[in-house]
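Re: that chain you flagged

S.,

Sorry for the slow reply, it's been a week of failed gels. I finally had a moment to sit down with the sequence you sent. For the record, here it is as I used it:
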Amino acid sequence: MSEITAHHGLLTDIDLHVDDTGGSGRPVVLIHGWPLSGESWAHQVPALEGAGYRVVAYDRRGFGRSDKPRSGYDYDTFSDDLQAVLETLDLRDVTLVGFSMGGGEVARYLTRHGADRVHSVVFASAVPPYLAKTDDNPEGPLDDATADGMKQGLKDDEKSFYHQFTTDFFSVDGELAVSEADRAEAERLANQADHHAALKSMEAFATTDFRGDLPHVTVPTLVIHGDSDATVPFEGSGKRTHEAVAGSELHVVSGAPHGVNVSHAEEFNRVLIDFLQR
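Prediction finished late last night. Pasting the C-alpha cells below so you have them in one place:
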C-alpha cells in the first residue's frame, strides 16, 4: 500500500490511498463505487493477480483511507486524481475498470486526458451515460423525487441510510443476493466516507451528463451489468452506454443486483479476465 499525492494547484494537494500488487503484468486499475473504497474489490484482486495482472485499486478522495478535503467532488477533479495515480506509478497499457460511480471517471478521463496510457476500459454497473431524468434525457433512471429522497436520507441519519443502501445494493426483489457478512462489509466501508464528500459525490454522479464523453471512448470496451440492478438500472445505463460506444462488448449477468462483482463474483471475474486476455 502507498499514498499518492494528487496536485491541483497551490495548497490543494491531497493524498490518495493506493493498493498495488506490483509485478510485471499489464496493469488493471480498479475504480470503486459510491460510497465504498478500493477494498470493495476484494473478490477481484486475487483473481486478477492470479491471472498475471498488476492490480491497482485506490480510494477516491473523501472515501476510505484517502484524504477528505472540502472540495474537488466533481468528475473533472476525480479524473485528474486518476491521472495522478497513473502518472505517479507510471502505468501504461492500462485497463480501467469503473464500477458504478467509477464508470464516470472512466468516461471523463478519456475526454480530459486521452487514451495514451489506456489499453481498454470496463464499465461495470456504471452510471453513464446520464442518470438524471430530464426533459432532454427521458430515459434517465433517476427522477428528482428519488434523488432528493436519497440526499435527505443521508443528511437525516447517515448510519441508517447506509444500512438500507447497502441492503438495496445487493438485493434482488427484496432478497439479499450476497451473504450478510458481505453486506455488512460494504456498510463498514460506507461508514468510512466523509459526510460532506458523500453528499457532494452523490450530487456529482446523479447530475453529471456523460453523453458527450462517451464518443471519446475509442479503446476496446466491455460493459457488464446485472439485469436486476435496482440502484443503477441496466435499461437506463449499461444498455445505453453499450449502444453509445461503437464496438463495445456487452455482458448482462442474469439475476444480478447492483453489486454484481460480489454477488456473481465468479462470473464477473471470468468475463473480465476473458476480456483482458483479448
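What I noticed first: The longest strand covers residues 14-20.

Talk soon,
D.
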